[in-house]
Amino acid sequence: MEMTLRWYGAAFDTVTLKQIRQIPGVTGVIATLYDAKPGEVWSREKIRGLREEVEAAGLHISGIESVNVHDAIKTGASERDEYIAHYIETLENLGKEGIHLVCYNFMPVFDWTRTELARMRPDGSTVLAYTQKAVDALEPEKMFSSIEKDMNGTVMPGWEPERMQRVKELFEMYRQVDEEKLFAHLKYFLEKIMPVCDQYDINMAIHPDDPAWSVFGLPRIITNQKNILRMMRMVDNPHNGVTFCSGSYGTNPENHLPEMIRSLKGRIHFAHVRNLKFNSPTDFEEAAHLSSDGSFDMYEIMKALYDIGFNGPIRPDHGRMIWDETAMPGYGLYDRALGAAYLNGLWEAIEKSSDRRAS
Ligand SMILES: [Mn+2]
Fold first, then answer.
1. What is the dihedral of CA 209, 192, 313, 43, to 10 degrees?
2. Could you confirm whether 197 is annotated as catalytic?
3. What pLDDT is recorded for position 359?
4. In the chain, N or C terminus with fewer CB closer than 10 Å?
């Protein structure tokens, strides 16, 4: 595996490439053109500029998170072919610049959903949290304004103000789309893009829905082992793979994370590893990466990745806000750096003990 950190670009991120370069063992960044709109073609020049900026800092681009999929594709609207053509052009340009991993999601209307961005934990750190009670009590249009004040002045992925102004309209677009239709639209999209992925050896890594169940009555399909295996079988190409995100699949306690990892051997192209602390089955908060701080066995998660021969990029996912840092919630430097160091430590121990057993 390669340890990486997500980076939103110099214009948007409070964390610098220089700081990332100094985290032990981090050699790559997961980059994006953060101001590109869904459906827009990413020009080769812009991608090259980004690549050169990252390389000048002694790092490289390990993958893109995300190239967003336009709502016309997700809803199967008549103009979807035009947007798929744009997506293909973006993939071509990424491939020509030597980028071979693209994370994306197929979530309707909202990306990840949290009800609090700064819940205080006993140690004084603040974290993102979710409580079903709050979602049930809220109109979807009010979701954005209820968390906006805690965004620390940053723009959070999937929660762009201009998008949130259109929430009602977006709900209307998805009114006729149920789970079966969403699967069909995903299949249509994947079948169209696989040839360009084959040509440039681009691994597509779908990110799970977060949380892994339906919110506000919207369909959600990338939620569990059964659905993800269905998605891989319906377009059976090794480039059609997944981002294994422990914090997203793990929102549903019925998802057995190490077992899911083992069932996805060869198709996990990217891993997000973080820990959650459950206070009840419908209330969870993000925890430090350390197993004992949350509800997951992080050793077993890393061991499963090791055992299936995972060799793609991995990144610590959301971190807590600690040490008075001000940053995009979940994306500060300090706790993600601690997370990377911890995950690297687990990996080294697993690797060495496995070598010893083998020899
Ligand atoms: Mn994730």
1. -110
2. no
3. 61
4. C
Would residue 239 show up in a list of annotated catalytic residues for this protein?
no
Contact (CB, 8 A) for 87 and 69: yes
Other C-beta atoms lying within 10 Å of the C-beta of residue 213: 13
Main-chain dihedrals φ then ψ at residue 121, nearest 5 degrees: -95, 170
34 is catalytic: no
Kindly state the average pLDDT of the residues 196-209: 97
For the chain, what are the domain ranges?
2-108+177-358
Q: What is the pTM of this model?
A: 0.93
Order across the sheet with 276-280: list the strands.
116-120, 126-131, 283-286, 276-280
Is residue 104 within 8 A of residue 66, CB to CB? The reply is yes
Nearest to 150 by CA among 286, 333, 327: 327
- 75 C-alpha to ligand 1 centroid (Å): 23
59-101 pLDDT, tens digit each:
999 999 999 999 999 999 999 999 999 999 999 999 999 999 9
Q: What percent of the chain has pLDDT over 90?
A: 75
In a 3-state reduction of DSSP, which class is residue 341? Answer: helix
Beta-ladder partners of 277: 285
Contacts of 167 (CB under 8 A, 6+ apart): 109, 140, 141, 143, 144
Q: Which helix (H) or strand (E) holds 157?
A: none
CA–CA–CA angle 204, 55, 314 (5° rounding):
40
H or E, element range at 105: strand 101-105
Given the residues 104, 293, 318, 335, the one annotated as active site = 318
The CATH number of 2-108+177-358 is which of 3.30.310.50, 3.60.15.10, 3.20.20.150, 3.30.390.30?
3.20.20.150
Cβ contact 114:129 at 8 Å? yes
